[in-house]
Amino acid sequence: MSNLLRNNSYDDKVTFENIQTIFGFYLIPIICIPGLIGNILCIIVFITNTMQRLLTTQFLLYLAISDTIKLSNDLLYSFVIIIQIFNQQFGKKLFLILYRYCHYINTVSTLSTAWFTLIVAIERYILCSTNSHRRICIQKNSRTICNLILFFSLLIALPVSFRYEIIPISFLDLTNQSTLSSSIRLSKFGSSRSFRLYSNLVDLIRAIFPSFLLFYLNTRIVYLLSRMKSSTGSAFPRLTLSLIIIIGFFICCSFPDALLSLILNMGYIDETYRRRTIREITDFLVTLNSATNFGIYFSISYTFRRSMFRLFKRQKKSYYPTTYEDLIHRQRLQQHQNQPLNHPRDML
């Protein structure tokens, strides 16, 4: 029986290492690098004058910033995995140094992404329901709302950085000499009942509660959009449709990860290899969610495409005459244009 358990544990470890290599070495860089470029383009587009006139832009800007942080953090994890393949000792040392900080950044980004997506859905629902009073209220306080979401995400995720601790361990090498190394394990606070309750609360806040609310809002937005589609232009329905897809994609990608953490009590380092394998897959879905928004905006929203193309549109260069006669002639034309219109015929 013990040999069977040992064989299953070894098989689970091999499966985990293979899955970790596939996702860390291949899939995460393939997803994160284009996703980072897309989110950076989103940030640039959303701060342009063309997009600033739209109410939703402020929330989408902060959502793109949060997704950029998430993808950067996951790409760093992928680099560590790649380093471990070529230099296992240095890669593990780097993993131990970065893990607690990356775990905190990951929690902050997933919390903020969830609530930025939720506030986008609330804002779009209010726009579709034509409640002018609430619309003006959100418009005036959009930046404050985004800053508060970011601040509370940083604050709520703070205990996560104390979940693990690095401990020195010694072992005998091949020459029977004692060698010092390090390992990471749950801290006393991380293994306490209070942290478990805190972890459940974070899982509810970051995905479970937002997912149920987003599902309700999404169905209401679809219903309201179908009723008002004939009486509005094409820009508003297209932008709303892109946001509906983003909300639906968030629910599909983020809900499984939070559900596994909440019900199955699944962490990462402190779990079995089988559960860590499942967690690698669900974590990848969360990463995929942060990398797809640019493609959705670009393929559906005409306003977004037009604003992005203007970034790459070559400005026409103006060539001015350099001779003295041409300069005098140009000055006279400017003076003539700046003269006040005194006669009514000059105003026609």
Descriptive overview:
By secondary structure, the chain is mainly alpha-helical. It has twelve helices and two strands. Strands 1-2 form a two-stranded antiparallel sheet. Strand 1 and strand 2 form a beta hairpin. Helix 7 runs antiparallel to helix 8 and helix 8 runs antiparallel to helix 9.
User: In DSSP terms, counting alpha (H) and pi (I) runs of 4 or more, how many helices?
Assistant: 12
Distance between the termini: 99 Å
Strand order of the largest sheet: 1-2
Helix content: over 70%
Strand residues, percent = 5-15%
Alpha-beta content class: mainly alpha
Uncertain segments: 1-5, 176-180, 317-322, 340-348
Quick check: average pLDDT?
Answer: 79
Overall spatial form? globular
Largest sheet: 2 strands, antiparallel
Tally the beta strands.
Answer: 2
Helix-strand pattern? HHHHHHEEHHHHHH
Kindly provide the radius of gyration, computed on alpha-carbon positions and rounded to a whole number of angstroms. 27 Å
Task: List its salient traits.
348 residues; mainly alpha; 75% helix; disordered N terminus
Question: What's this, in brief?
Answer:
It is built from twelve helices and two strands; from the N terminus they run H-H-H-H-H-H-E-E-H-H-H-H-H-H.
Can you lay out the helices and strands and say which pair or pack?
Layout: H1 2-46, H2 49-52, H3 57-86, H4 88-128, H5 132-140, H6 142-156, E1 164-172, E2 178-186, H7 193-228, H8 235-263, H9 273-291, H10 293-300, H11 302-312, H12 324-338
Antiparallel strand pairs: 1-2
